Amino acid sequence: MDCLFCKIAKGEIPSAKVFENDKLVAFNDINPKAKIHILVAPKKHIESIKHLQESDKELISELFFTAKKLANDNNLQGYRLVINVGREGGQIVDHLHLHLLSGDAMGAV
Ligand code: AMP
């Protein structure tokens, strides 16, 4: 499958990985929108939140707990978690991922 984040997960394309286990990978965004901008993605190819199945419940839970762990590891006092869904939702890469953003004061959404 010709998917950028699948290739990053498999190590076929280089990335600045900050976390990896058997289910998830996290790496620095190549075009950071904040001082800290980490992407957390399942290794399994899921196109977007729209494509989630009941069987993905545990994986999605792990996605959020991993974001929390990375925030703790980076000693972040406050942060924003974002998941873009579909083109109209700002999603560019069609492989589900969570943005962890921090480092600048963020206004309310
Ligand atoms: P989204 O708009 O939610 O699909 O976010 C995709 C994100 O992937 C953007 O913030 C891009 O800067 C980021 N991105 C694209 N290519 C790479 C790459 N090779 N390594 C790391 N981040 C990337």
UniProtKB/TrEMBL annotation:
<feature type="domain" description="HIT">
    <location>
        <begin position="4"/>
        <end position="109"/>
    </location>
</feature>
<dbReference type="InterPro" id="IPR036265">
    <property type="entry name" value="HIT-like_sf"/>
</dbReference>
<dbReference type="Pfam" id="PF11969">
    <property type="entry name" value="DcpS_C"/>
</dbReference>
<protein>
    <submittedName>
        <fullName>Histidine triad nucleotide-binding protein</fullName>
    </submittedName>
</protein>
<dbReference type="GO" id="GO:0003824">
    <property type="term" value="F:catalytic activity"/>
</dbReference>
<dbReference type="InterPro" id="IPR019808">
    <property type="entry name" value="Histidine_triad_CS"/>
</dbReference>
<feature type="short sequence motif" description="Histidine triad motif">
    <location>
        <begin position="95"/>
        <end position="99"/>
    </location>
</feature>
<dbReference type="InterPro" id="IPR001310">
    <property type="entry name" value="Histidine_triad_HIT"/>
</dbReference>
<feature type="active site" description="Tele-AMP-histidine intermediate">
    <location>
        <position position="97"/>
    </location>
</feature>
<dbReference type="InterPro" id="IPR011146">
    <property type="entry name" value="HIT-like"/>
</dbReference>
